[in-house]
Automatic annotation (TrEMBL):
It comes from Candidatus Jettenia ecosi. This is Carboxyl-terminal protease. Residues 99-165 form the PDZ domain. Residues 392-421 are annotated as: Disordered. Keywords: Hydrolase, Protease, Serine protease, Signal. One of its GO terms (molecular function) is endopeptidase activity. GO terms for biological process: proteolysis; signal transduction. Residues 1-23 form the signal peptide. NCBIfam families: prc. CDD domains: cpPDZ_CPP-like (cd06782), Peptidase_S41_CPP (cd07560). It holds the Pfam family CtpB_N-like.
Amino acid sequence: MKTRVYVLLFCITLLSVRTVSFGQDKPLEKPNAEVKEKAKETKEDIYEEFEEFIKVIKELQDKYVDEINVNTILTNAYRGMLSGLDPYSQYFSSEELEDLKIETEGEFEGLGIEVIIREGLLTVITPIIDSPAFKAGILVGDRIIKIDGEFTENMSVRDAIKKLRGKLGTTITLTVVHEGDTVPFDITMERATIHVKSIRGARIVDDDYKIGYLAVTNFQENTTKDMDVAVQDLLKKGMKSLVLDLRFNPGGLLNIAVDMADKFLERGLIVSTKGRDTTQNYTYRARKQGTYPKFPLVVLVNNGSASASEIVAGAIKDHKRGLLLGIKTFGKGSVQSLIPVWDGKTALKLTTARYYTPSGVCIHEKGIEPHIKVPLSFAETKALHEHLSMIDRDTKTNDVREGESKEKEAVPQGSSVRKEKSSYIDVQLERAIDILKGIEVYAKGSNTP
């Protein structure tokens, strides 16, 4: 009797997943006898597999050394099903689903690392700017060999994330190997509250040529609105051109990436998605309403620019709206859908489509090549980490300085609170500024009679 109950429960679970995931079953218009026969064979094969699966569950329940709950067995089975597909598909328990919702709201506790399994190794997509991991020197492409002394081999992404998280203020030691290196070393850091501020460092970086700068570090619900505020403020300050920094941006919400690209494009295709199920086929197009003025634009990218970042970069590149500068992007061109199961208490994060740039290219595991390559050495990359962590503080300091300059006669000589400017030079940003200066000079020259 028990076995029958388990078979029934399992079949109901699978049916509910299928219904919610795909929404509808489209019959063939004119099914022929051969197709019907194949469908029959497929069903019989599936039922045989189900029977085998139930046998395994029964054996586990009856003979495993410790008593084991059927829900635990099934949860592990779901995790195994999805982990075998690709690095991004996952099963979320109710607790994990709640954590995911908190993350998308822009604040959570942990280290601030985006990770995947690549070639069997726990690999860093990118550390979140200004997070404990970023400040401690965790780099894009780092392989995490151990977490607090425990090897990560055969560890799932969700299990790794559980271990990386913990109580606020507690310490954790990661054993990592930098990309291109073979020597592992330990990095110890303290868990903190991660405030994911998606727009950072908006400012005029060249007063003479009125070149603006802003960094987008993530694609959250309010990212486009926040960028609008920043861009409008820069335009009020006389901005004539812009450097858009997408370095170390791991992505986020697809619709927000589309909205952002739309701000720079008046018309045309932004991105398209194609899946095995035609319900996943979409095209996203730009609209003229709300588009920014057509100022010169340079977009900074690197190997930490992934997913939604690549949608924006790819659209700008293909429409020749601006220049891409830096190094090749990460190459995550797949789309994950969150599919609720068990009345929304749990969910599948499933790869349901791949996205294509306006020119029809799928950049999955390929990345996007910039127009202008400006590679950084290992030391320069580490220095860039430290510099970007200070970006907002420097901006606030500059705002204070502007206020001081207006009241400088009220400040006694020698009592200025100004700090010496950082000696660090962001070579990629400097190159972008030089290019925008050149565009301005050329434009003036071509307009001269």
